[in-house]
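Researcher: Sequence recovery benchmark, item below. Answer with residues only.
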């Protein structure tokens, strides 16, 4: 891993994602880039022309980013390289632009945004990006303190074939973190086909420490939270499936649902 991109809006609850990204970059010795989108202020003059007054907004954005960079370099004793990007415009465009430019290995975002209660009920910019993300995403809920990842829940859906590339990426992240995988599939009574699919996954992960469990339930977020509470789990990893715009508009994906409700960071591995 070479580059982590952190997107922040400097809301009160974004501290958790910023701290997590900083500590993770320090652990993995990667470059950390921070992007913040600010809204340029425009004013129509008496002749109807529109003048843009962006200097003050840009200065404020750069000042906030610079203070955050100083705190991060101080916290890691200068061990990580941090770059900052003040982007004029909306947050989604800023993130898409910097992903295309930097080609980061991981995007880190806070789950709460400006309104944590609403985000938990309805989702946030971070969860809405999941179905169309082009890079792995790490979503950090409020209150999630960084600790070295040792155990990861990997939630899989065996009702359809698993994307081999996504599974390889999940394995890559587990090795990168030096973590064991607890693979979980929500299924009350797995039939022979599901048992065979599970065995296939276990063979692919033969050189990766892991367990595999079929667990009963109707709500994946509750099943995973119960499993997390009974085991020492630091991270939940999901394998998002591609969704059409129509599917995204009509329904929430499993990864979005789990991320919205989770109390620990969720990694959408693609």
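Model:
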């Amino acid at each position: 891993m070479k580059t982590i991109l952190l997107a922040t809006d400097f809301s009160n609850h974004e501290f958790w994602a910023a701290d997590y990204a900083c500590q993770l970059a320090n652990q993995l010795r990667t470059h950390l880039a921070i992007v913040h989108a600010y809204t340029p202020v425009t004013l129509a003059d008496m002749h109807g022309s529109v003048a843009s007054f962006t200097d003050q907004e840009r200065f404020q954005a750069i000042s906030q980013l610079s203070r955050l960079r100083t705190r991060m370099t101080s916290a890691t004793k200068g061990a990580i390289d941090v770059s900052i990007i003040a982007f004029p415009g909306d947050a989604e465009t800023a993130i898409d632009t910097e992903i295309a430019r930097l080609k980061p290995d991981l995007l880190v975002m806070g789950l709460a945004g400006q309104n944590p209660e609403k985000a938990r009920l309805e989702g946030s910019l971070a969860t809405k990006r999941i179905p169309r993300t082009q890079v792995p995403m790490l979503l950090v809920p409020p209150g999630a303190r960084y600790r070295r990842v040792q155990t990861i829940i990997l939630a899989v859906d065996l009702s359809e074939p698993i994307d081999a590339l996504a599974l390889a990426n999940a394995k890559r992240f587990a090795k990168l973190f030096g973590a064991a995988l607890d693979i979980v599939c929500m299924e009350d009574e797995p039939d022979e086909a599901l048992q065979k699919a599970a065995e296939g996954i276990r063979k692919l992960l033969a050189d990766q420490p892991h367990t595999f469990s079929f667990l009963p339930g109707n709500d994946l977020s509750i099943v995973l939270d119960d499993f997390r509470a009974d085991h020492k789990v630091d991270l939940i990893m999901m394998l998002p499936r591609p969704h059409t715009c129509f599917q995204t508009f009509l329904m929430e994906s499993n990864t979005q649902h789990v991320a919205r409700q989770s109390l620990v960071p969720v990694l959408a591995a693609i």
